[in-house]
Every structure is written in structure tokens, then in C-alpha cells.
Amino acid sequence: MIGWRQCSTAFAAAALLGLGAQGLAAEGSVSAQSPLSRQQAWQEAMSKLPTGAVVTSSRCNDVEIGYSNTRYYCVLTFTQPVQERPQDDVTGEGAATQR
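^ thats the sequence. predicted structure below, dont judge the formating
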């Protein structure tokens, strides 16, 4: 009969090997600026997002730079799913790029 310690050790080993890491996400941010409008700065930042990214927050600021000129800055924070590496059928390790 398998004891609870052996089962918990197996679960811990699986977690360390990354078998339970399917729900993880990477986080990052992009920024942009525009002399014309806050909307243009926001759209420019949106165009810099990686494919599949989900915006989690955005922040835009207007900065007076003198002589009645305003510069608009936007920062978008995003998450995206972590890409899993392809598995080698024989070893179970990530496939090598060169052999």
C-alpha cells in the first residue's frame, strides 16, 4: 500500500518537473509616446503587444514639455501563456536545436 508520504513526494516531483505548469503566464509591459494625443499613444502601445497577450492594466500620462506642448505617454502591462518546449520522444527533454 502506498503511503501519503510517497504520494506527496510524487506530486512534488511532478511539480518540479513542470508537469503542473500549464496555467502559468509570463508578464511584461510595453510603452509608447505621442505628441498628438493620448489615444494615439495608447494605440501605438497596443501595436507593440506580442501575439496572444492580454492587457491587464494601462496607464497614460500627459506631460507638459514647455511652450504649451504636451507629450502623451502610455504603458500597458500584459500577460501571455508560457510556451511549452517540444518534448523529445526518447528522453522526455526539450528537443535540441542542433545534434
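The CA atoms of residues 80 and 94 lie 21 Å apart.
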